[in-house]
Fold EAL domain-containing protein.
Amino acid sequence: AKRSGRNRWAWFDQSMERELKARNDLEGGLRSAIPRGEIVPYFEQQVDLASGRLEGFEVLARWQHPTRGLITPDQFIPIAEETGMIADLSMTLMRQAFAGARDWNSDLTISVNISPWQLRDAWLAQKVIKLLTETGFPADRLEIEITESALFENLALAQSILGSLKNQGVGIVLDDFGTGYSSLAHLRALPFDRIKIDRSFIASMNENQDSAALVNTIARMGDSLNLPVTAEGVEDKALEERLREIGVARAQGWTYGKPLSITGVRRMLAERRML
Ligand code: C2E
Ligand code: CA
Ligand code: CA
Ligand code: CA
């Protein structure tokens, strides 16, 4: 027994070592990927459920790796957060997104994810506003998405940052509502314009009565607080129809197609005569 125990440890060490090396490689790679412009924005359509109209896009980070192809954010955003690289990553991503979306005229919005880590930066609002000025993207077409966990650390600072952005016309979205530390107090303490229901609730709506009831409750809460609700992870038309009946304002998800690159969005808008 002792012997197999030791073998198991040897195996464990090796796999830990491999994992550690993979992580270190990724971290090193990410450090140079950011200045090289390998982190690029992809755009996921957000649709108004009542009219079916395209309202805008959520910006999602992708790493265009020279040998590994397109890497999704779950593999590098946590590393970027732990190492502080998220600040630079987010700025390069926003710069590209603002510049790319600037001349998709009409009134399409773009919605960017801001990580909890960035809400510790007292200059965040000024940095975002500067980027808007430099790229010529209008503040009132920008929304920022923040998860609730981000708001616990320093509520006063979050209030000040979000207040400054909102004063410029930037919309503030409470992301992943219903997961983590849901607190109704936050809904009053912070200047939200919109609530986003996490994909986990939407995905289970068809099988799970409780999920459907919860989505309905969040939609009614949104009504009474005057906060439009977005549902994410809408994968098919049946779900879309149920959400429309419930009175959810906006939806996004694969039923509208997978996230597109800047070029992909341009092509799609051109086809729909929306450029
Ligand atoms: P999120 O903000 O909750 O974004 C929604 C995620 O759900 C995206 O994954 C999107 O591609 C995926 N998704 C959308 N529709 C569907 C659907 O119909 N079915 C399924 N199964 N999935 C769908 P993605 O792009 O992998 O992003 C994962 C998470 O990474 C995001 O979750 C967000 O928290 C984070 N993230 C992405 N970009 C950024 C960024 O620029 N900054 C920060 N801080 N976080 C980011
Ligand atoms: Ca989001
Ligand atoms: Ca999220
Ligand atoms: Ca989510």
User: Anything to note?
Assistant: The two ends are 69 Å apart (CA to CA). Strands lie at 39-48, 54-65, 69-71, 109-113, 142-147, 171-177, 194-197, 229-231, 250-252. The longest strand covers residues 54-65.
